[in-house]
Each structure stands twice: as structure tokens, then as C-alpha cells.
Design a protein that fits this description.
Mean pLDDT: 77
Protein name: Quercetin dioxygenase-like cupin family protein
Largest sheet: 4 strands, antiparallel
Strand content: 15-25%
Pfam families: Cupin_2
Low-confidence stretches: 7-49, 51-62
Radius of gyration: 27 Å
Shape: globular
CATH superfamily of the largest domain: Jelly Rolls
Domain Cupin type-2: 104-172
Distance between the termini: 80 Å
Strand order of the largest sheet: 1-7-2-5
Helix content: under 10%
Number of helices: 1
CATH architecture of the largest domain: Sandwich
Order of helices and strands: HEEEEEEE
GO molecular function: dioxygenase activity
Structural class: mainly beta
CATH class of the largest domain: Mainly Beta
Keywords: Dioxygenase, Oxidoreductase
Length: 188
Amino acid sequence: MAAGLPPPPFPQAGLFRRGFGRADGCRRGRIAPTIGSENSPGTRSTALLRPVCALLLLATSTGAVALDNTSSVKVTPLLKSTTSWDGTPLVYPAGPAEVSTLTIEIAPGGETGWHKHPVPSFALVLEGALEVRLKDGRSRRVTAGQVLYEVVDTWHNGRNVGEGTLKLLVTYAGRQDQALTIRPPAGE
């Protein structure tokens, strides 16, 4: 056994030989646990495990998801971003966090009226079609199944551009005792 290494947990199989506890085991062809070595003749070669090591490395280097797809769980990422749809970086407010989720329904042709949100918010369109317009004329349209990162501290108006009732599921990532929506002062 190499000096300075703990005794192998499974000495009968010759596991955890060279590279035990080293992060570079896969890169240098050392695979821990290793099956097949001079310590365990007659078993599979480590060359067969190199592709497995490469797949494990690839699998662990992909983006994080909350759950993995399984035979009984289907995970479908809808949106991942560091900015709202107008390109403004998302910043969470300081202070004690409070998350609020609301359902919002807007009649055909109805509008929210001009407003802004001081906190990041995310809208999932459950039914219908939504158009969000900014004061500068830019707009974004989303339909059922799509998610919109709302603009933060930017005046905007939401309008139902579909034929039926627009149904939204909106989540606000704010702080305790902070307003979620701000209306313009009367007369503006």
C-alpha cells in the first residue's frame, strides 16, 4: 500500500488504489474506485472504465436542475436568465426575503394599466396571450406555456391580446413589507 494513504475500504477487490481522494483521478487515467490492477489480477481493465469516468465528468458539469428526469418525474426547464426581458440585470432587494405568488386574470382586451415592480417578478402564462409594452415603445408578447421575466423599476402596461381570458401565475421575489406593484401618481 502507498505511504500516507488510508487502508482501502475493500481490500479484497483492490479498490481505491492510486488516486484515492484526488480530484485529478479521471484526468490522469486513475479511476477511484479502480477495478482491475496489479492488486487484483484477472478482473476488468481500467481502460473499460475510462468512458464511464468521462460520462460522469460530463454529467456533473452540466447546468443544475431542481430535479432529475426519471420514469415518473419529467422536468422541463422553462426559463433561466440573469436579466429581465429588456436586458436589465436582475438584483434581489436587501432585507428579509418574501416570495409571493399570485394568479392574475385579465378579460379579453383588458389592460393592467401603467405600473412598475420594485422587485423581480416572473410570469407564467397559463392561458391566453399577453403583450407587455414599455413607455419607450418596446414590447414583448408571450403565450400559454411561456414565461416572462418582468422588467424591474420600469413603467409598463400588460394587455390581453388573445380571444379568451388571460390567466397568469406570477411570482414576486421581494422583501417583507415591500410593495409588489407601484402605480403612477394621479394625473400622470
